[in-house]
Queue: 2 jobs
Job 1
Amino acid sequence: MVVGGELLDARSGETFAVHNPADGSVITRLPAAGAADVDHAVRVAREAQRAWAKRSVATRAGLLRRWADLCQERVEDLAKIESLDVGKPIATARAVDGSMLMENMRYYAGMPDKLEGRTIPVSGRFVTMVLREPIGVVAGITPWNFALVGAAGKAVSALAAGNAIVIKPSPLASLSALALATVALEAGIPPGLVNVVTDAASAAGEALVRHPGIGHVSFTGSDAVGRKVAATAGGELKTCTMELGGKSPLVVFDDADIKSAAKAAFLGIFLNAGEMCTASSRLLVHRSVHDELLDAVTATASGLTIGDPADESTVLGPVISAAHRDRVEGYVQVGRDEGAALVTGGTRPDLPGFYVTPTVFDNVEPTARIAREEIFGPVLSVMPFADEDEALRIANDATYGLGSGIFTSRVDRALRFATRIEAGNVWINAYNLLHPAVPFGGYKDSGFGREGGFSGMSHFTREKSVWFATG
């Protein structure tokens, strides 16, 4: 663990194993934090935050820029750690995660002097000011699929707002957060502002959410765990943001650029082995272009290079764990049992580690489990539609509402669909584009609150109203 600038063991002395998804081997062992470790981390963070909030915004921004600069110098090492820990192909870790890391670090390093208060005209002789202040100590609970970017985004935005953070990474992918905290110390970020507590289960996370020294909980993960975290935070009257799962539709109309749509469909579900909350796991295709698009996507899926994440030519690496592989394979069997047409995949590659073959199902009923439940793996459900109303009805018939994509050459249809789709993010003739300046979050079971931009920053601050009598 990294707490107060020190590498610490758990007070209990207990540890847990970290496995390499590519071959199942043990990479290392990490401390299994308990409530006492969490209490120490929060207290240290609170003390450091008081001093941090007193520093000028110029000083804070300068230190955050230095942290970003050092991340840039170490980005190759950070990408390799992410690849090893998560099983992500190194080419993806470098091009996607490395780029997203630096976009987040650079953007939020410039944020400290952008947060402003305001004055409000009221009756009487008063000047009424609204001040925006740090919330204190943030609990950042991060996922395993984008462990590096998830930890960095929460940490640098929390610090930009004047807070400290205690990060609780997933036990399946903790190494990137530890590396990021180490780089922060080397960059001169004061000890105690970026802390990481590791745990094999949920004890440390629950203790963190319940701790009275935590002012805000920023959670990214499954909707099942998110409900528990939100309930606990609510019981403690803490604010929280929930970035949860998805079952995102990619809708392709008959006037679409099929080549571009096929590429988006491929990247939307097979990038990162489908382990993305915004994965376009539901491909809705107009009947007149169904066969053409299905053939294009299937040909690409069938020809993917599957293998060692350290190999530069690998496109599809393993999923995160044996248990998750078994879960994904269970959904493949469910798809077969439900009567969907298996077009490609559905078998386990003859490789060590936790691999799943890219799988495409066609003619999937909108009510099927594989069309409604988040699989979080490289499994695509293709569903034909006849017209715009049917496409919208199928797209919105989901408990989730995180991402959505529309391919069409008609501007009126694109804008009409974008306003009627029940999702927090809509991409038109593109898919899964992200930038730290743009708010990101979901509707329905995909959570609440936003990350990114000033909308995201608002969750890390609180407003204070000041009435000044002028006479």
Job 2
Amino acid sequence: EADMHGVKIVFIRHAVFLEKNAVYTYTKKDEAQNAEFTRGSGFKDAHILNILHQKAVLEYALFHRACPCIIHCQDAATALLSVFAHEISRYKKLCKKTGFLTTIHNAGPGYHHHFSSLDEAAYYTKLSSDILKKGLCGERVEPFLLASFYSKLSTVSPWYAEELLDPQYSYSDGLSPLFAQQNVHIQGILNGIEYDKYDPKNTSQSCLSQSFNPLLGKLKGKYKIREALLEKIAEGISIEAGVDSVEQFGSIDITVENPVFFSYHGRIVWQKGLDVLAEAIPLVLTKNAQAYFITIGQGQPELEDTHIALAHQFPGRYVYLRGYERALTRECLAASDFLVLPSIFEPCGLEDFIGQIFASLPIAHAVGGLQKIDHGETGFLYEDNTGQGIAEALLSAMHLFNTDRELLNAMIIKASYSVKHNYTWQSIVEEYIAFYQNIVNPQSKLLT
């Protein structure tokens, strides 16, 4: 156990957790040791990890003979907790006054932690078929669907909540029609961000080498960060430090006045639109000599290979940094003029917030939580998420960069101000408190 700011944190210690080299997926080290473990793919024993975690929570409550008035479960990996609490006899009495909330952070394909059949679900959960049938989606047993019978549901933006309840929605792998059919309510509460942890005025928090203040339009330090980053890229970046590793492909060679830098940072996966971004980049680079791209992240090996090929195709104009290291990732974002977010779907998105804090205006596909961007005020939204559509959006931003820098600077100030004053957790938490009040059993006392 640990205590942080008066909040008790309980850790579950077990060999199946301790043997992992990363939190969610197999690493390069795992792949080297076992050919069955593909770097970037989920753990083969994920069901064991999830069930062990959830039952350990309830066993902890049982051991202490106390269950909280609310248990807030995060995503599909904990979505069965409310089911166990209501349907397993050893927990029923203890948890009868407890309210449950399950937050859907991502209901896209690959994020459901579903069971492939009733038999598989019964094997891992030890729940009866009658219970598990409530969660059927075709032949699969879906934790989110089961949770909807025992728990309130929320998700991480109002826009994503609307999408998930639309029976025509294409990116929930079959859940949306069932949610709609069963009149499930999903509360959309936007994720917040800790502005102070990224504040570019404070280098000890931001992890940046220079300070600058977008709130006042003072960006000299931002461009010094760019100069230093370009020097690192020229020397060649290679990082191997524990779980952090970065490998550089490509280079940046500035040959024009007033270069425009686009960046992407995040997972290199289909959901994030990295395949369509790869189609857009050659169109932009061949159309406008001012454009330069920096991409940093890791994910699906085939998409990584696509961006490595782009780096070879456009030497001096495109650099791909495969991997992750926090300070370097933040430098790449702070060094750019625009942040590109071509997500196929996006439940909330925090990268746009970070871009706004670092004076890198987001250019985003108008889906899900990315719609919190105020088009033309705090960033840019576009509808056509094809290579051509993205290229047109980026070239349009470059045109503004060249023709109306005053407007662009005003947007930078407004974007940073918007995050600081509207989207910190201090602002968002009030919505959660109100929602908790509606969930909690009237016989319990909710701490305020």
